[in-house]
Amino acid sequence: MKVKVIGAGLAGCEAALQLAKNGISVDLYEMKPKKFSPAHSSEKFAELVCSNSLKAERIENACGLLKEEMRLFSSVMMEAADISRVPAGGALAVDRDVFSQYITDKIKSEPLINVINDEITEIDTDEYTVIATGPLTSDDLAKEIKRITGDNELYFYDAAAPIVTEESIDKSKVFKAARYDRGTADYINCPMTKEEYTEFYNALVNAETAPLKGFENQKVFEGCMPVEVMAKRGFETLTFGPLKPVGLVNPKTGRDDAYAVVQLRCDNKEGTLYNLVGFQTNLKWGEQKRVFSMITGLENAEFVRYGVMHRNTYINSPMLLDKYYRMKKYPKIFFAGQITGVEGYVESASSGILAGYNMSNLINGKDMFEPDSKTCIGALPLYISNEGNTNLQPMNANFGIIEGLNEKIRNKAERYNKIAVRALDIVKKQLEGK
After folding, report:
1. Mean pLDDT of 24-48
2. Nearest CA to 94 among 50, 60, 134?
3. How far apart are CA 74 and CA 169, in angstroms?
4. Cα–chain-centroid distance for residue 224?
5. Strand, coil or helix: 48
6. Is 217 left (phi over 0), alpha (psi -120 to 50) or beta?
7. What is the pLDDT of residues 280-309, one digit of tens each?
8. SS3 of residue 395 by DSSP
9. Which of the four pLDDT bands, split at 50, 70 and 90, describes residue 384?
10. What is the dihedral of CA 156, 43, 55, 400, to 10 degrees?
11. Which helix (H) or strand (E) holds 176?
12. What is the spatial distance between Cα 107 and Cα 327, in angstroms, rounded to a whole number?
């Protein structure tokens, strides 16, 4: 028995390794380096495009809980993250190159995985296949997916933030701190007065954006919205979003009286690169340099990567998939990754884990892993496969989709901790067959 896995992103790599771990041979198809999507540039697998952050580590955060659940499945993403982490306060951020190289080496050293560098444009519904081509599925394969799903594809836009060099940041004007002193002070904070913010805001909302060619019916995912689009919703929108100043005390003054604060997060292991948190953008590159250089401390910043915007594609999962990430119409076809409607690096990898795990169980005549609404890794597929969800929008890990407790606990951190502990216990018992 051999399974075809299409796409060597986070979800595809997780799925391939879950299958191999259970004794199943895999043909892993990856079109790079023969062909690259508009957002990818590295030949390595599991390339991180938008950000180097895997979000919070603590289990009182839903994404932190999801990562711990994934560790129970021996997630390759979590292995790679542990050896490539960079300082990021209470978050888990990684050196992109080290991260991707680890996963690439892991895949290529697995004897049951055969890597084929080619683009797939046809799908045989009678072959065991995991489609994990991600939000940037090639046009030809997208047409084939549309053929087998019989449904129109849905589009939204995803934007990547710019990166500056650490040495080009004016240290006399910025300070390091973690919001509310949670975790270590790894973020560089750029405080702005109301006058500075007003000047920046006016430049931002009037800046010229790059044309989006070839796409119609534009949809923007709320969790990854271009900063200029967010700003146009109102003068103070950013100060209640990515530029919120609360909880950030400037150690140089002992005050937290900034009107707005731009945060910079370390982007590589050496600490030489920082990305602008929440600054996903579709501004023209020259405009990015002009406008973002108005931020306190970035007046002479060296931009090593400007923000880019690209298409994200996902299927109408509530009508097409069951809770195992399997097609209802063609039970040998599984989907994994952001193309299913889960949103985020960690969420995508978790779907690849379950798709690979469940397909291997299906082939080996074992029971499928039953998604439990009391867990994060189970709540995600239950959400995206819920037929009552008639207007599917990409979904991040969050406690809102996880079944709550039977008791009332007013303290949110305490409540989430109890939910998380319960979830980890459930997943452990499921994997142990209890």
Report:
1. 85
2. 50
3. 39
4. 10
5. coil
6. left
7. 998 999 999 999 999 999 999 999 888 877
8. strand
9. very high
10. 40
11. strand 175-176
12. 26
CA distance 105 to 102: 5
Residue 65 token pair? 């809980």
Place of tokens 């992103």: 9
What are the strands of the beta sheet with 113-116, ordered from one edge?
A: 113-116, 25-29, 2-6, 129-131, 333-335
Rounded to a whole number, what is the distance in angstroms from the first to the last CA of the chain?
29
Helix (H, G, I), strand (E, B) or coil at 327: strand
Rounded distance between C-alpha atoms, residue 262 and residue 277, angstroms? 7
> Of all helices (H) and strands (E), which one includes residue 205?
helix 194-205
Q: 129 exposed, middle or buried (CB, 10 Å; 0-12, 13-18, 19+)? A: buried
What is the token pair recorded at 88?
């990021």
Which structure tokens are listed for 189? Answer: 């904070």
What gap in Å lies between CA 158 and CA 224, rounded to an integer? 6
The encoded tokens of residue 314 equal 């996902």
Cβ contacts of residue 158 below 8 Å, gap of 6+? Answer: 50, 135, 221, 224, 280, 309, 310, 311, 312
- 47-80 b/e (C-beta count within 10 Å ≥ 16 → b): bbbbbbbbbbbbbbbbbbbbbbbbbbbebbbbbb
Instruction: Report the phi/psi class of residue 150: left, alpha or beta, with left for phi > 0 and alpha for psi in -120 to 50.
Output: left
- Say how many C-beta atoms besides its own lie within 10 A of residue 87's C-beta: 16
Angle 22-26-28 from CA coordinates, rounded to 5°:
135
The DSSP element (H or E) to which 29 belongs, if any, is strand 25-29
Q: Give me the helices (H) in 293-396, please.
A: 317-320, 345-363, 376-384
Contact 121, 141 (CB under 8 A): yes
pLDDT value of residue 216 = 34
Specify the pTM.
Answer: 0.77
Cα four-point dihedral sign 228, 233, 236, 240: negative
Q: Is 175 helix (H, G, I), strand (E, B) or coil?
A: strand
Residue 407 neighbours by CB under 8 Å, 6+ apart: none
CA-to-CA distance for 48 and 299, rounded, in angstroms? 28
Has residue 392 got a pLDDT over 80?
no
* 41 pLDDT higher than 70: no
